[in-house]
């Protein structure tokens, strides 16, 4: 089996590659070839052989055809301009997030016109396809009314994915990820960064800033769950999905206060003392527009799973990022 | 005010032009200029002056820029490849229905970059954005999971319309039309044709074929209502809509049997005797996949109105198409 990961240098991409390196049978079939693609040269874990890497911009002329000509059996499309940049640069966001994705889909269709070909195509979508006002729990049949260009681009790609799958051009699944927590690495400037910062930094003995109230609710899954979603999406029987190919992934709806309580239970009050409260009304306003809870019934029924407590999410971070100890 | 109608030679386009000719103040402001555009030269009612016509394909290079350079204040975009053709010819459907529309939206945005410009943009969408299974009544927050490429293209254009409106590039409204009944003209081969045929033909003393059971339910509005939707969309205060710019129009949910009953009341049992029952399982299966009922609350609250009985729909046909008598 030939597996291609587009966007392999991103946080989820790297973790997915690590998982396939550690468990070569994770996708049920032997991976004979693994191709890693990103705009920068993606890193390669030492354990992997039969691997090739490509530094390439999917939205540039001929790129999609070049990728698809090697006829991968499974294609992960994780590459995107992030939300803030897509909002700041209208042309770039549409070019990469919409036109780049459509070029990939079209290249697959045209490859299939030459000779029968319909790979499994797994697309990283986002809960940014939803826009306020929301019901208390967003169900699987709630409409997509994005309030960002990023969310619009993701929602459009979901529609294309469903139509191309219905036509049999590929076998597509759209994965709407929760906010990933605890994100490894350094604090970043994303408005959502604090959800991870207030756990990751204190666990490493560092201060972190909490810019919102503890009663802010949000929707989370661990990086390990995210990788699990993408593994399951490659293995699962898509005959069970039907034509509604885009799935809100399961997650944990929790208050910031519940994050803090879990941190206290696991790392003690000293860790919690490292959280510095500095209310930021700008971040508060942005976060207030985000979804807080979902009833992700379909994805659960189809076998996707996520954490059920912040204790679990913190323990996963300790195991996967901190070598098991704090 | 300069009004442009793209798709002016179609059934709704022609009726909209006729309405503006008969009531020049229908849009509240004086129409100083009216531009009619279609792939074929659109017909012009004698009553209209200050009118120009253009035969032009919106999806061909430079067409959108050419249209927009005259800076219309109101743009109606009614042009589309119909459902059956968009399903049969994948490339043509996407080229006209998606790329043509996006080219128009982009031309408006770029015109606005040169000099401040944000016209009212009214887009004809469709209930084909919805796909089975449905709730008994489809509410305003039900998700779009089209089961045709046509419906996919309409749903994508709705998303673009909302994003371009949110950004202030234009002031857009998407109008999801019910099935228009009674369609004037000759019987056609559209799967939905019989809904009109079984009334229009008997009213004119002709036989018509009914290929489905009388207990088939569907969602209707008259051509007069459709024109009314488009007039109201140009006049209304869009400040009341908010960012959810695509509206399911009100309509009448009725059984085929109710059509027949209304025909009997208005034209007598002899007219009903002209309906020949010839069950066609192919048409029956297609129709079974269509939405049957909506709760179009938002559009009603925003002032859009439609018929509440088939008696009304038939009387409108008699007034508007048959000179008031049968």
UniProtKB/TrEMBL annotation, chains A, B:
InterPro entries: DenD, Epimerase_deHydtase, NAD(P)-bd_dom_sf. GO terms for molecular function: oxidoreductase activity. Signal peptide: none annotated. It holds the Pfam family Epimerase. Coiled coil: none annotated. It comes from the Bacteria. Residues 3-213 form the NAD-dependent epimerase/dehydratase domain. Keywords: Carbohydrate metabolism, NADP. NCBIfam families: ErythonDh. PANTHER family: ADP-L-GLYCERO-D-MANNO-HEPTOSE-6-EPIMERASE, NUCLEOSIDE-DIPHOSPHATE-SUGAR EPIMERASE. This is NAD-dependent epimerase/dehydratase family protein.
